[in-house]
Amino acid sequence: MNKLLRNSVLAAFIGAGIGVAQAADDASTNLSGRIYWDFSDKTIKKDGVNQPGSGYGFDVTRFYLGVDHKFDDTWLLDLTTDFSYDSAHGKTDLFVKKAFIEGNFDPLFKLRLGSADMPWIPYVEDAYGFRYVEKTIIDRFGFGNSADWGAHAQGKQGIFDYQLSAVNGAGFSNVSGRSKRIDYEARLGLHPLEGMILAAGLYNGKLGQSQEGTNAPHTNTRYDALLAYVGHGARAGFEYFQSKNPKAANIIGTEDKADGYSVFASYEVYKPVTVFGRYDWTKLSKDVDPSKKDTYFNVGAEYAVRKGVRFSLVYKWDRVKDNMTQTKTDEIGLFSEVRF
Length: 340
Known about the structure:
Mean pLDDT: 89
Strand order of the largest sheet: 1-3-4-5-6-7-8-9-10-11-12-13-14-15-16-17
Order of helices and strands: HEEEEEEHHEEEEEEHEEEEE
Radius of gyration: 21 Å
């Protein structure tokens, strides 16, 4: 299977070269960027005692800088870097998040080879609309990857959309993440009414933990569901997931399960002001530590300065609790997204 995938990638790149040679006159290059930043006051307490990471701080949680080069109507090349700064740890990280060649052959068949968006997390982010305030529930706990290295097929027509990805499983930050097996993630979406989204997803693989010399004893299987509405200045949604043997299960060597749900809503009271809120509830370890649960919510108000520039005043509350201990996090601050 790995040999077949490598040969398919090579054939696609050769085909891309032929396409460039035949249609160089239609080429165009575009630059884009997106910044998520916040200035906030955060209090982290474990069993009532303040923890490192508390206090005031300015964070650039994400800075994406992207370049895409369109060879013609079929072939496109994309490179997106991912930079972040965490004031609590005083360090910066820089990754290549996306680097792929795309062949757009039909509305029902677009193929990306390289590191590209995975089927589920970016899809839910689009419905949620406030990624700059908080990651979606699966991304928060690392139960899935937002991008990964491999082959990604997707399409959309009428009320139907889909994506199927065959990837390394270790995520976009692990460029050389060779694995002993291929991981798969799939999504099927339906839009029966204007603004309505019904979607289901499936993940199966080793999450990049099964490598030469290292055996991952368990296989991760994750089921996802989304019901959402986006339109007329309003957003509302319900996301549910169930994960068998998440990444931590292979680290401790014991089978485990996790599940949870997220409810979100927002409404544009009047241009340019939108109010929003979200509630998450997660069982983090149903077999190993059934008492371990996470409860999270946020509320806020957004002011859209102009297209591409948004500011929000946000309050967040989070609690991770089991029979032995609990950790609470309170945060209030200004969060912003800038796009170009």
